[in-house]
Amino acid sequence: MRAACIAAALSIVACATASVAEDAPPITAPTVNGPATGLADSAGLKSTVFGTPPQNIAQLPDKVPLIEIDATMPWALPVPAVFWFDKKLEVWFSAQDHPAPLAIVISGTGGDGNTSELSTLRAVLYGAGYHVLTMPSPTFPGFIVSTSSTGVAGDLRQDGADLYAAMQRIVSHLPHKVKITDVDVLGYSLGGANAAIVKSIDAREHKLNIHRVVMINPPVSLFASVGRLDELFAISIGNGDVGVERLYQRIFAQLANLYRASDRVQIDENFLLSAAADVLTTDTELEAAIALVFRIDLMNMFFAGDLYAGTGVVVDPRHPPKVGDSLEETARVLRGMPFSAYFSRVFAPYYLKHRPNSTPQSLIADNRLDIIADALRNDPDYYAQTNSNDVILDHAELDWLKTTLGSRIVVYDHGGHLGNIGERQPVADMLDMLAGHWPGGSR
Amino acid sequence: MKGAAAASSLLLLLCGCATDGIDMHRLPPQTPAADNAAAIKKAAEVAAAARAAVNSERQNVAVSPPFTAADAPPLQTYDPWQRLNRFSYRFNARFDRAIFLPAADGYRWLPSPIRSGVHNMFGNLSEVDSIINYTLQGRLGYGVRSLGRFVINSTIGIVGLFDVATKLNITQSPTGFGTTLAQWGMHPGPYLVIPLFGPSTLRQGVGLLGDYATNYGIDLADIYRGDQSYGVGVVNAVDQRANISFRYYSTGSPFEYETVRFLYVRKLLLEDAGLHAKETPKKRDPGVPAGE
Lengths: 443, 292
Hints:
The structure holds two protein chains of two kinds. Helices cover about 45% and strands about 10% of the residues of chain A. By secondary structure, chain A is α/β, with parallel strands linked by helices. Chain A folds into two domains: about 1-35 and about 225-360, no CATH class; about 55-225 and about 365-435, Rossmann fold, CATH 3.40.50.1820. An eight-stranded mixed sheet of chain A has the order 1-2-4-3-5-6-7-8, sandwiched between helices. In chain A, strand 7 (about 380-385), helix 15 and strand 8 (about 410) form a beta-alpha-beta unit. By secondary structure, chain B is mainly alpha-helical. In chain B, helix 7 (about 175-185) packs across helix 8. In chain B, about 30% of the residues are buried. At the A-B interface, helix 1, strand 1, helix 3, helix 4 and helix 8 of A face strand 2, helix 2, helix 3 and helix 10 of B. Strand 1 (about 65-70) of chain A pairs antiparallel with strand 2 of chain B, so a sheet runs across the interface.
């Protein structure tokens, strides 16, 4: 995540300054109470940014076979010209050479099907004897374009339905020699919530017969979590252009001085890794990095949603961009758009139109994990792992998870958001949960 | 008939198996244990380098005027040939997906010692260009280091197959004519996406031509001229691609062109700032795009 944060910090400001004169939003966006950093302390922020130290990673296998699967989805919407490269859903599959359970792992917000977190989970699951299928988040542009049946990402039920359909199509086309004895689903961050929803759909439809689910650092309320990240952006960077430009100039100057002081002749990965530790030291800097990474994911989701929904916030629905058109201006505008703007100007208008009797409040309520509270409470095959200093949760949400899941959740005292994924103890616990060896779970 | 069969096999290898709108590409296996061991080693190196950098920074504070936020280049990038560049970017993405990446993936199936031998050999040959350019840049210390690497690896390292010099802590520091032009004071110039090569600027593009001319002129080991140069060029290109993890549009983002352009040019400008570390940073007009 270190290099990613630096890259993110630099690339977000690539979309140069431009003010957005927003009209008063017609729909009230979700509001958030409590601190913007959720439960995160300084250590939690640091873990969130820098990820799991490699020396803390669980034992990994020497080799993991890998097949890239590119799949078209028959229900997909027409692909907009500007997304010509996202026609197929890309997933990755690792097969055992003997009958084995299948673990399907879903990425977090904006992530593709081959993120570093997924690579780690793939390795430990494969090493434990699972076939492993890794999938992108429904908020990843490649998923939105190739697989979403609406083009407007972020709705737990709709995204879950699309994921479930995609999983069925891919699993049914796996090579015949792959023998599957059981199916489990996992996900990290938003992917954790997606995994739980997918299992709840499968409980009705029985197309995959999903057995167990493990949610890793899941949100409880999707909109509350991203609302916090909006607030974090406002606090650590500042709304509008001045804050972003100031951040860019400061980072560039810091990197330039670090580079000038070093004896390197070119900027390489080692320099960036080293520089990240120097540039990202204070809580505010770490908060800015977290907020920036999320804002970049949001830009893609916002653009795609606006394009598909025809809401005309940044894309003129009568003149959508063509292949080769510059998107610089669009990116400039989007950079200043928080999630609340996506909700009030794209998401809510689209779903209010397509879901009779829905209201903005019902849309917000529908994006909480408690829409499947009964299943989470009563079905012993749902598990969760989270951290006591996770940035995307507050005290009430953590308490809700603990109360609802009982002994089927484990809360670690460190790691922030995903900053201990792949660590020895969480991996051992995850494998116990999947194998039915966890106290209080199903056998 | 044999040719047709071979062509079909190659096509299958390149395209994978396609069924009902689902394509499967078998990739070289991942090596998580070795990758994590390398990450642990790298983390230790980075920590050591960070400690060294702190000392180095302290030493340099007195002689180098610090770079301030006001010296940072503007957010905009000078890209007057944007339409052509975007076309080249798309061409490169398609070429990469259809030809380059499958070839690199195929290459990665070769045993690791063979690949590292090939990689080391090309790296060793490139030291000649580095020696010349460091000399042109007036950075003779680096030139001597490259010369030392070349001599050690060409002899003890058996014509460059083994990178003995790195094991002796004489690490590779490649440079080229583009950096020489930067040292001589030339700005990066307009952003340029070169077909098959990727992101560049006018200055760096000219630098590539200079590097090619150098290699052609010297024709070390008789591999840069004649028919064999095509084969060598292809192997070199595939080896380089196999060692670059970047995949076009893996971000899925419609803004990838803007992001790559921004990052590439900022990296170049940071390196330029390093080249002129002893000079006071030039005051920039915020209205002039970076690179112009």
